[in-house]
Design brief:
Radius of gyration: 13 Å
Shape: globular
Order of helices and strands: EEEEEEEEEEE
Distance between the termini: 39 Å
Strand content: over 45%
Number of strands: 11
Largest sheet: 7 strands, mixed
Oligomer: single chain
């Protein structure tokens, strides 16, 4: 059974940092392009960042460029999203995605005083 499980979300003050993890089971992430998405309350899900299967190439949405870093550890079957200088508008449920098929259930990030 394929599972993607996100973790690391929580409440953080503006300007703070969080590191999200996405652990996979039942599939080797080494063969997949991995992505992070987010969905804010009342808004559609949006793409945040991508990383190719070797970790050599990454891409970011303009809203997070320079503040977020995506990385992966294929032997650990885990993808990460390092988030810095967080803003209230980063508040959302964050999801990871493997290829075009598999989604996790998300982890909530709340940026607030």
């Amino acid at each position: 059974q394929v599972q993607l499980v996100e973790s690391g979300g929580g409440l953080v003050q503006p300007g703070g940092s969080l590191r999200l993890s996405c652990g996979a089971s039942g599939l080797p992430i080494s063969i997949y392009l991995m992505r992070w998405y987010r969905q804010a309350p009342g808004k559609e899900r949006e793409w945040v960042a991508s990383i190719d299967n070797t970790g050599g190439t990454s891409a970011y949405a303009d809203a997070v460029k320079g503040r977020f870093t995506i990385s992966r550890d294929n032997p650990k079957n885990t993808v990460y999203l390092e988030m810095k200088s967080l803003k209230p508008e980063d508040t959302a449920v964050y999801y990871c995605r493997a290829g075009t098929t598999y989604w996790g259930k998300g982890t909530l990030v709340t940026v607030s005083t």
